[in-house]
Write a structure and sequence with these properties.
CATH topology: UDP-N-acetylmuramoyl-L-alanine:D-glutamate ligase
Strand content: 15-25%
CATH class: Alpha Beta
Number of domains: 1
Number of strands: 14
């Protein structure tokens, strides 16, 4: 069993502040650090730390190549199909972390991520064929996501699309995607339904089902998540934890979902795993360093065995 993640690989530049700056204001920050990041990389690392064989397909620049390749090796992510682009910089993200609330503000320069090609995907066909789950996000060109989705669908793979950051999608992509995992902002943009609460989350989820996906899983931040299928709606309240850093929570969620499905769990159980992974992530700083491993997840689920989903 394995998972292939096609997506972005960044370097994150973190700085902590007690509050976000106003427009034109300069604040003194602290705790500056450089960390590996990018939604694709985060999700690949998350899957690998949870014990699943995981490939990453994408591009990085020469500037941070040794650093990023070493990081992937350290956590067991297979980099056979991660290409080094000699003409473009590695994607970067500048992250301001509000230590008072655990919230963040992020600016991204995609760099080499936006130069991934169809040939790169063709060269990685071995990984796609060998994998059960193909996990995608929107920090690489939409054309590439469309291409991967169609190939994976035709080969009978389960395609999970995390439509982040928020973007308009062509209607055709929905027939290739089995599971879509937007947050409330992304769900609103994709469906035209303003997601404010559980009822509107279900309404948006139903519209995504009508577009062609089999399952829509809408994440609601501190409120948890909602699973919508053609015949049921299930609410997953968030686990109660102390929030330290919300960066990468969505990536932890998607990694947990993909691994649970790859290991044969039902979609209902997989969303519970995903919710637990997101909860564990926000208790620690760092988009990747804060991702849980399989032992942490197992222990957390054991301690929360009385957790209850609610059928809406």
């Amino acid at each position: 069993m394995s998972i292939t993640v096609v997506g972005s690989v960044h370097v994150d530049f973190y700085i902590k502040v007690d509050r976000f700056p106003l427009v034109g204001e300069t604040l003194l920050g602290r705790g500056f650090q450089i960390s590996p990041g990018g939604k694709g990389a985060n999700q690949a690392v998350g899957c690998s730390k949870l014990g699943e064989e995981t490939y990453i397909v994408g591009r990085i620049g020469k500037d941070f190549s040794e650093y990023l390749l070493a990081n992937f090796r350290n956590v067991g992510v297979k980099t056979d199909f991660l290409k080094i682009d000699l003409e473009h910089n590695t994607g970067v993200a500048f992250i301001i972390l509000n230590t008072s609330t655990g919230e963040n503000m992020i600016i991204i320069d995609p760099g080499a991520d936006y130069w991934i090609t169809r040939k790169d995907v063709d060269d990685a066909l071995k990984a796609i064929v060998e994998s059960d789950i193909i996990l995608l996000q929107l920090e690489i060109p939409l054309e590439i996501n469309m291409y991967v989705s169609e190939i994976a669908f035709l080969k009978g793979k389960t395609v999970i699309l995390n439509p982040a950051p928020a973007s308009k999608l062509p209607e055709e992509i929905f027939k290739y995607v089995k599971i879509i995992t937007p947050n409330r902002v992304e769900a609103s943009q994709l469906t035209g339904v303003e997601v404010r609460d559980l009822n509107t989350a279900v309404k948006a989820g139903k519209k995504l089902i009508e577009k062609g996906v089999e399952y829509s899983v809408i994440t609601l931040g501190s409120q948890g998540a909602v699973l919508v299928t053609s015949d049921k709606y299930i609410y997953y309240p968030s686990f109660k934890v102390d929030v330290v850093d919300t960066t990468g929570a969505g990536d932890a969620f998607n990694a947990g979902l993909a691994v649970a499905l790859s290991q044969g769990h039902t979609i209902e159980e997989a969303v519970k795993w995903a919710n637990a992974c997101a909860a564990l992530k926000i208790t620690k700083i760092g988009a990747q360093s804060g991702l849980p491993d399989k032992y942490e997840l197992e222990e957390f689920l054991r301690k929360n065995q009385n957790y209850q989903m609610k059928i809406l």
